[in-house]
Amino acid sequence: MSGTTLDDASAPAAPARPSALRMLLRDIGGAFSLILVILIVLLAVLAPWLAPHDPFATDLMAVMEPPSARYWFGTDGQGRDIFSRMLFGLRVTLGMGLASLVAGGLIGAVVGFCAAYYRRLDGLLMRLMDMLLSFPAILFGLALAAIFGPGLTSVIIALSIATVPLMARIVRSAALVVMGLDYIEAARAIGMNDRRLIFRHLAPNCLSSVFVFSTLRLGQVILLGSALSFLGLGAQPPTAELGAMAAQGRNFLFIAPHISVIPSLGIFVIVLAFNLLGDALRDALDPRLRL
Amino acid sequence: MLRHALHRVALAVPVMFGVLLIGFMLMQIVPTDPATVRAGPTATQEVVAAIRAELGLDKPIWVQFGLYLGRLAQGDLGVSIINNMPVTQELATTIGPTVELMFASLLWSIPLGIFLGTVAAYWRGSLLDRAIMAVSVAGVSVPVFFLGLVLIWFVGFQWQLLPFTGREGPLWTWEGIRAIILPALTLGGVLVGPVARMTRTAVVDTLSADHVRTARAKGLNERLVVLRHALRNALIPVVTLIGLQIGFLLGGAVVTETIFSWPGVGRLAVGAILSADFPLAQGTIIVLSAGFILVNLIVDLLYAVLDPRVRQG
Amino acid sequence: MTRFWHRATLGGLAAMGLALVAGQAQAQPRNQITIMREIDADRYDPHRSTALAAGEVITMLSDTLVSMDYDMRTIRPGLAERWEVSPDGLTYTFHLRQGVTFCDGKPFTAEDMAFSLNRWIGRTTPRVTSPVAWRAGDVKEIRASGPHTLVYELNRPFSELLPNLALFFGSAVDPATVERLGDNFGVQGFNGTGPFCWQSWTPRNELVLTRHPNYRWGPPVLQNQGPAHVERIVWRVIPEAASRVAALQAGQADLTQFIPDAFIETLRRSPNIVISNQPNYLWDTYLGFKVDRPVANDIAIRRAFHMAVDRPAMVRAVWSGNATPARGIINPTALDYYAPADELVPAYDPAAARRMLDEAGWRVGPDGIRVKDGQRATLTLFAINNLVNQRLGEIIQQAVRQVGIELRVQLFDATVAWGRLASQDFDVLFLSYPYISASDALNLYWHSRSRPTPNRMNWNNPQTDRWLEDGRAATDPAVRAQAMANLQRQLNEASAWMNIAHNNLNLFANRRVEGARAHGLYGISIYKGLDLRIR
C-alpha cells in the first residue's frame, strides 16, 4: 500500500534534547491540551467521588430536564443525571481506548521489533501488516460485532487489531534507524544477547515515536469506539458510555437536544485534547514523524 | 509498472481471502440450520435434506469452504434470515445509494480541503494558516454523529431548509439532490480537516523543492508558481492519501447512513448485525471490504501512473 | 486537474445553492401520500404474518369478510354483505358481495374466500402455518356453497368468531397468484381485493401501493366506499423517531402513528399537524413472569415488583403522559372487564415490599440483593430492543434494586427477540399486544395449551383452562362475562403479570392530508385508507 511512504517519513528518534516537557509547555496549544488531558483523566479517575448523583438512579419526576442547578447537564430520558453519567462514561470511553491501544500497541511493538531486528522475518511480517492495514477499522468493528455479538469487548478487540499494524510500522522504522547506529553493531559484534539489546538500546530509542503515536492514536480510537457504540455495536445499556448516551438521546433530539448533544460534545473535547497534545508532542519530540 | 501492479494485486488476493474466511465463519455461526432458512418455514423434511446436500452441509468443513467460494463466484451470498430475500438482491439495491453518498461528499470536501491546505501552506505561519489548521484539527476530532445531529437540528428541524429522512430519488432529480445535501455535508465535513492537513504538508514540501525555486528565480508570477508547480506536484501524494482516507470515509458513511436513514450498505450492515442476520451481515461485510480493497488498488495503480518514481521503484 | 476541481466545485456549490433556495417547496408528488413507520415486515402474507407492520399494509391490499366499526365492538359488513348464524352457534352462512374483483381484474368468488380462509388455518397445500390460526375457531369446514355463498362450520361454538374474522389474518387472496409466487407470495407480489394494489417493495426501505381503480366495496364504517381518493401510497420505513417527527412537520411525509410520546406535546402545538385519537384502543404493555422458574415462582417476589415500581410515575415518564397506567390485567374499556378484580393488585409501596420479602424469608445479602435458601433474588428479563423497553427496563431495574431484587435486562433486536422470547432462558419479559376483548386477551395468553408461546408465563391451571373454554363456547354473553370475571380475579390475585400501561393510539397527519381517522383494530391506525385525501 502507498502507506509505505510513512517509512520514508518517519524519522530517527530525536536526539536527546534538554527537556521535551519544557518545549511542549512553551507551545500554548501544547500546554493547554496537556492541562485538558490531565483534567479529563482526573475526572475519569475521580468519577465516583465527583459525581453528584448515582449514574443509574432514575428520577421519574425529572425526566428530560434541561440543565439546572440540581442537574448540571440535565437529565436523560429515564431521569438520570447526565453529568454523573458522563463522568462514569468517561471511564468507560477512556478505558475502552486505553485497553485497545495497549493491547494493539504491545502486539504491534513486538511485531515491529521483530521485523527490525530479525531481518529475515521483515518481509513476511510487514506484508502481513500491510494486509491488516488495508482494512478500515470500521470493518473490523462490524465483523467482530457480527461474530461475537455487539458489546464493548468486540469493540476493544476490533480497535486493537486496527492498531497493531500502525504501531508495528512506527516501531520498526524507529528501530531500524537505531539498528544502523555504530554502537549497536558493536554490541552485536561482541555478542550481546538479543533481549538485552532490545530492551537496553532499541526500546528506549523508539519511545518518543511511540509516545507521539499513542497520543494521537488514542484520540482516533476513542472516536471510532464511540461511533461503534453510537451505532449500537459497542457498550450496551445501561452502561454509561459517551457514544451510547448520544445514541439514546438522539431519540429525543428535537425535544431535549442536550441529552445527545452534551455527550457528543464531550467526545469531541476528549478527542480534540488528545489530537492537540499529540500534535504538540510531535513538534516537541519528533518533528519529522508524520502520522 | 507491470511489476508494481502485479505486486499490488498479489497483496490484495490474500486480503480478500481473509475477508471471505470471515464471511464463511459468519455463516458457520448461524444459530439455525442454513438449509432450513433457505427452504423456508413451510418446506418438508425432504426438501430440507435436499438443500442440505445441495449446499454441501454434510461434507467436511474445508469442502464446505470451497463450495462457499464457488457459490460466491456465482454471486450467491445466501438468503437473509429475516425476509428470505437473496442477499445479493438486497446488496444490489443498497450499493448505489452508498456510492452516491460518498461521491457527493468527496465532491465538495476534497476541493475545499485542497484549497484550504494550499492557502494555509502559501501563507504559512500566518494567522490564516493557524486558523485553518485549528479548524482542521477540530475537523479531525469531531464525531460524525455530532456533526450530523447538529445539522439535523438546525438546518433540518429548526430552519426546515432541507430534508434529512433518507434518499428521495436519484441524483439527477431535484428531490434527490436536496435529500443528499445534509448527509453529504455531514460525511464530507469530517474529510475536509484531514485533506487540508495533508495538502498543506505536501505543498509546503514542494514549495521548497528545487524546480519551484527555479521557477521563482525565473521571475514567474507567484500565484502561477503555486498553482502550476507546487500544487500540481503536491497533488500526487494528496491523491494517494485521499485513497487511504476511503477507509475513514467508509466509517463515516456507516454512521451517516444510520443517522439520515440513508438506504445504503452501511445501514444495512448495522441492521443485519443488530438483528443477527448472519447471511446478510456476511454479504455486507464482504461487499464493503471488496469495494474498499478495489478502490485502494485503483488508487495505488493510479499513483504509479502519476508518479514516475514509483513506476521504477 | 485543478481546472477539473474548479469546475466540479462550482457545479456542486451551484447545485446546493439552488436546492437551498427551493427550501420550503413540497417534496411530495401530487396525489401521493407517504406513510411513515419504524420497521418493515418480513413479508406481506396475511396467512403467515402477524406483525403490525404487515397488517397495516395488508388491510389496504385486501379485505375481510366483515369489518369493525370505530367503537371496536360493532361488526359491519365487509366482503360479506350479510350473514346468518344457526341457533346452536355452529354454522355461519356468509352472503358475499357481487362484482368484487382482484387487483388483476379477476372476479372474486366464494371459492377464493374459502381458499383464503382455509389457507389461513393450514388446510391448503402447500400448507402454511399461521400462528394465529386459532382465531378462526374450531373449524369443521369452510366451503363455497354457491358463487357468492360461503358456509363456515364449527365443531364448537365460538362467541367471538366475527370480531376475529374482521382481523387482517382472514384477508382474501387470489389462489392463482399464491400458487404462482409460492413462498414469495407477499414478498415479490400480492393480489387482493383491497382498495390499493401492490406496486413494488424494497425491504426496510419502502413499499409502494397504487389505487385499485375499480374498487367500490369499502366497508360502511368509512365515508368513501371507493375508489380511493389517493393514487399512490408510499409506506416508508424511517427508523429514527426524530426524523419521522421532522419529516411530518416539514411535509416530506404525511402520516404516521409511530411518534414517540415525548414528541406529542410539541406536535400538538404545531399548526400544520392534525392528531386523531382513538379512545377505544386496546393495546397493553405488560411485564410477565415465568411462574415456574426459581425465584419468579415465589408470589412474594412477583408482588414485590408491583409494590416496588411506581407505575403511574413510570408510565408518565416513559409515555410522557400519553398512556394510562394499568392496574389489572384488562383495560377498563374492554368488553367483559371486571372492575372489582383490580382491587387485588398490590399498589406502590416499597417499604411494604421490603417487609413482605423479609417475612417471606428473603434476607438481604451483603451486596444488597436478597437471598433465600442459597438462592439469590436475581431475575433475567428479555424484551424487544426499543425505546420504551430500554427505558422501562432501566427504570424497573433500578426500582426493584431498592427492595433487594436484581434484574438483568437483555434486549434483543425485534427479529431475534421473538426466538429468544420463545425460549426458557429468562424469568421476566416485557411485551405489548393488541386485543379485542377480555376474552380475546385472556384466551391468547393463559390457556395451558398456549405454552410455550404465547403463554410465556408457563401458566398451567386446569381451572383457568375450564373458565377460558366456558367463555369461548358461550352463546350467552352473561355466561362469558362471568367466566371472564373469574379469570381476572384469579390472575390478578396470582400476580403472574404486572400490567404496565394501556397505550393510546394517535394518528398524526400533516395538514396537507384530510380524512385521517385513527381506527386501531389490532393496532392498525389507518383502516383501508379510502377516506384519505390531499387537501
Automatic annotation (TrEMBL), chain A:
SUPFAM superfamilies: MetI-like. It holds the Pfam family OppC_N. Residues 90-278 form the ABC transmembrane type-1 domain. The keyword Phosphoprotein does not apply. It is found in: Cell membrane. It is a multi-pass membrane protein. Belongs to the binding-protein-dependent transport system permease family. This is Peptide/nickel transport system permease protein. It comes from Neoroseomonas alkaliterrae.
From TrEMBL, chain B:
InterPro entries: BPD_transp_1_N (IPR045621), MetI-like (IPR000515), MetI-like_sf (IPR035906). It is found in: Cell membrane. It is a multi-pass membrane protein. One of its GO terms (biological process) is transmembrane transport. The chain crosses the membrane at residues 9-30, 101-123, 135-156, 176-196, 234-260, 280-306. Residues 95-303 form the ABC transmembrane type-1 domain. It comes from the Bacteria. Keywords: Cell membrane, Membrane, Transmembrane, Transmembrane helix, Transport. CDD domains: TM_PBP2. GO terms for cellular component: plasma membrane. Belongs to the binding-protein-dependent transport system permease family. This is ABC-type dipeptide/oligopeptide/nickel transport system permease component. It comes from Neoroseomonas alkaliterrae.
Automatic annotation (TrEMBL), chain C:
The keyword Signal applies. InterPro entries: Peptide/Ni-bd (IPR030678), SBP_5 (IPR039424), SBP_5_dom (IPR000914). Belongs to the bacterial solute-binding protein 5 family. It comes from Neoroseomonas alkaliterrae. One of its GO terms (molecular function) is peptide transmembrane transporter activity. It is found in: Periplasm. GO terms for cellular component: ATP-binding cassette (ABC) transporter complex; outer membrane-bounded periplasmic space. It comes from the Bacteria. This is Peptide/nickel transport system substrate-binding protein. Keywords: Signal. Residues 75-446 form the Solute-binding protein family domain.
